[in-house]
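User: Second chain of the day. Same drill as before.
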Amino acid sequence: MVVLFQDFQPLAAIATTPTAAKKLLPLTIATGATLWIPESLTGFTDASGGQDAHPTIQVYAGSLKTHLATIWHQYQGFIFGLATGAVVRLISPLLEDKSRDPAVVVVDEMGQFAISLCSGHQGGADRLARLVALQIGATPVLSGASVGLGLPAVDMLGVPFGWRKGEGNWTKVAATIARGEPVEVIQEVGSTLWQKHLPKGHPFYFEAAEDSGSRGAEETKDLLNSSSTTTNYQLPITKSRIWIGFTQRRFSPESELPKVQWHPRVLWVGIGCERGTSRELIETAIERVFQAHHLAMGAIAGIATIDIKADEAGLVELCRDRNWPLQTFPAEILRSIAVPTPSTVVETEVGTPSVAEAAAILAGQESCLSIGNSKPAAILAGQESCLSIGNSKAADILVGQASCLSIGNGGQDAHPTILLVPKQIFRLEGEPGAVTVAVALAEKEYTGRTGCLFLVGTGPGQLNQITPAAQTAISSADAVIGYSLYIDLISPLLRPGQIVEALPITQEKQRAQRAIQLARWGLTVAVVSSGDCGIYGMAGLVLEELRFAGWDGISPRVQVFPGISALQAAASRVGAPLMHDFCAISLSDLLTPWSAIEKRLTAAAMADFVTALYNPKSANRTEQIVRAQEIFLQYRDPNTPVAIVRSAYRQDEQISITTLDKLLSASIDMLTIVLIGNSNTRNHAEWMITPRGYQIGESE
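Assistant: Same format as last time:
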């Protein structure tokens, strides 16, 4: 369960009364939160099993106000079991900025409401409130304007894809969206999945237009400086603009049009350096290159170099402090990459004519990021044409030509990796070493996240038949994938900004492959199945696809959330037919040879198992249920009770209690479960009962 709340770890809960503590204790166990209680409630710890039994409980001394000030910066989120007014007074002196404040959620003592109080968007309090509400069966209270519109918050829309927020007036752009006024989106790179899952009537316009009366001179300059394509069409008069790209734009403070910028992490920085080159020199060189070429530092995906530099102290330190991945490649791989400025000097030293350019290009190719590291050695970046940090500027060269940069709206169709900046060589007076920098535009953005697959069973489909854990998994996921009918049934659990992909019933394998693709990219993906996902559901198929692909069992992470199986749901609607040994057999021969299915039917009938038949009949597959009846009639009495349950717990539910000899007279389709009793099963007052097999009066 803790994995569902991983984005909020470490997480704290605060209770000051026994009632609140009892309400929050199960929640803290489920979420991995620490429950803080005052010394006056030490009796509660004894009554609840003690702190040894519940290590999540911690006791604070003195006033809560003082204690809260001490721990405020230690946690990503807080769940308070106090009155809202009291929480407001407690946290108000501690609030700094919405980009840094933790998520704050308030749960009333009766556990009826989970209120997103502070840092709803960037801190994630809205999402935390939803998840808490699902766990305790409460109503989430969210007051943000974007929630009512069904829109992702503008300052959160790039978070699932690892984008970095750039400069701009985020408050004014958010206000424009809240008023439903037109917002122009100019997206040069990055995933467009967020665009494809917006509600109808959203205020966004996505094509970039040429200069029109709706733009002032500064806006026109912004557009001309961008690398997006232009098309002729008439935009409505936009009230704000969102730029999504790798370029660093400077917005004029005099402009009346509020603008913001997101930076997908699409730039890989190739580095070659002498042994002992300082971290300061490497960082300064990168910053100068980015300034000279108007590139955003927030768009950096990571650093790429030759494997013998994997232990270079300055490089390792810079990547650690900046939280950049360091991707290294062996010389024989780098040598295979064609580059514009190869060097015989470098080839003599390290076995490849290019380090910075080749490494940047390779890192930008998604398929190359699994290439392992090799052995460390020494390297000397000794090129003669050196550009000193003290010089005015780096050469303004774009090796891909301007036309190569017209990537349109990004999206899932990857473009070839483009070398934006060829190698630039830097030295800095007073700093040891020399560094070579090159920059490549990647095929797809780097998310910086470890993907996760939630394999979720939704039971019969009614929300109250789905476990709290499964509901939380669905709501917390970045993407939800499933058969269209099942997606419709869980629609109340979906939230604004989620990627929701519904595929036809025959495309189970495609669903599994798509989910794995998104999870490997770094998203958290919920794959939903009706019933239990591990019983004729998607769990086995997803794990099978992972195994075939050489999955290491670690990334992406996988968690299975069980649900009420179809046979359990059907049985509950007709009594207790499964009280003794039973089995389930699918009559679909799409994945299993019919000869094998016939053997199982014969074995189950002979062994007197209560038998649940899945997928009994489809429009094109009608003979299997006939043959199943024939087999069972060879070993069972014709009057053996049979239950035929279609769409259990759904609005169009149909239930029929009959006998084995009359089985085929009932309406049966793919949404039906057929339950065939054993030799001791009996019907009584429209209920189907199978004895447990114990002697009367025997204790359980």
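The two ends are 32 Å apart (CA to CA).

User: Great, on to the next one.
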